[in-house]
Amino acid sequence: MRLSILLALLLALASPGNAEAGSPLPFERGSWAKLRAEHAGQPTVIHLWGLTCGPCLVELPYRGKLVAERHDLKLVLIAADPVPQDSERVEAMLKNAGLGDSESFSFTDRFYERLRYEIDPAWAGELPRTVLIDRDGKTTVLVGVADLGQVRAWLDAQSKSPR
Amino acid sequence: MRRILLGLGLLLIAGSAGAQHHHGGGAPEAFTATPAFAPDGTLWLVRAMADRIVVAKSSDLGRSFSQPVAVTPEPLKLDWGPDARPHIAADAKGDLVVTFAIFQDQRFNGRAFFARSTDKGASFSRPQPITADSTSQRFETVAIDPAGRVFAAWLDKRNIAAARAAGRGYPGAALAYAWSDDGGGSFGNTGIALDNTCECCRLGVSFAGPGRPAIVFRNIFDTSVRDHALITFKDAATPGPLKRVSIDDWKLEACPHHGPSLAVAPDGSQHVAWFTDGRARKGLFYARADSAEGPFGEPRALSSPDRQPARPYVLTADRAIHLVWKEFDGAKAVVRWQVSPDGGRSWSATRTVADTTDASDHPLLVAHAGRAYLSWLTKAQGYRLIPLEDQP
Predict the structure, then answer these.
(1) What long-range pairs does B120-127 form, CB within 8 A, spacing at least 24?
(2) pTM of the full predicted structure?
(3) Assigned architecture for domain A21-160
């Protein structure tokens, strides 16, 4: 009993931390490998977007709706602007789109060629871009504004696939 | 159970440390250096710093530079777009013209300015808008034609208002231009060469003759196909017909931030290099046309798409045509180089002429006295001017 109260207390303490998760973390050399390792074995959706990408900003609120609707969605947002952006503006944009609580990164290393290469050597930097990573680490890339129906279908398939 | 608690405690610490605000990314900043040779062999370099434009000169081919002189008297919100840069041109008398753009708002509406120096770069006139219309100008570039007349071209959104008033949309921006008849002291009326071109890519400018600019740009075909096109002026006030460089079929409702490059050779042949991610081809390509009127030949791939080939630049120097671009080899950004001795019909093997292990500007080419040079600003090594041979 005391233990469960303590657990609840710990979780309550944890929530302000979660609310802070919308602040973008610096995405630097090695961040991609770290991110992949942290999400290993979990189906994860990586959404590459940018403040300087008009269609990305139009699409973002739909991503926010999807997060609210699908609790099985592990979404990671990476602001991949070729020129590092003000992190407060990145954060505000995500909050407005209902993505304030999602795990989020922002390119802060100006050596963007290297960051892109680490994510995918064949990616020339076009945004938006969605990378679906399944339990086995297999990736599916959706180029441009994603058909969220496709993302839903992928999530459905993940929940059915054996753990 | 205690172990679980301990685990949770660690998670909290890790979580709060990991979720701290990151204040590293302040206002975005430009990182560019654009060169021009004066006829006397002085190398002029214009740089976009955090909030100002400065000019420095080198009399020893880039080995040493003078103290930079500020072109902009007070801090400005410069256009930091990944394909934007200030430009500089030097005329036969040694007078200089600098152009640059600022952001007017957070929706990427720009304002292009010019400033002139008539005292060999010791001081610059107060920057003036290049055009009276204040809607938006970006990707301005300045060049001097073979007769010594100063020409400027840029992307301009002035025609959006009229389209909206008529209940129509207006994709992209117009390709605009103006001439200066007083060596860059002022610019004349703005002409619109073409409406609805892609709004976010640099222009490539060269000359088919006196008063005859040729401009290559990313156009918008069929409302959303962002492929390249070229216009060669018939005379100073008459833009010629649109000539498509290639059908790449890059359908995109976004900004590639990745413009083309153009060189017109003394024999009138046209040489274009560009990036595409189209359905018909992906990566970097080069194509040539025999003349301003002739069609472009089959595009030739310059690299493989998994090396992130980017930012091509083409230039003629004496009889040679030089081509450079940037690639990433897994550890370093490298500048690759090819040269053609026969007007772009055959090309040398590709060679790496410079590399860096950190951020870098686009590789640019500049020529003086028949010799081409790579001009490259890198974070790790600073600015470099590297001479290119006539053959590898």
Answers:
(1) B120/B94, B120/B96, B121/B44, B121/B55, B121/B57, B121/B66, B121/B69, B121/B96, B122/B69, B123/B69, B124/B55, B124/B69, B124/B70, B124/B71, B124/B96, B124/B98, B125/B185, B126/B73, B127/B71, B127/B72, B127/B100
(2) 0.90
(3) 3-Layer(aba) Sandwich (3.40)
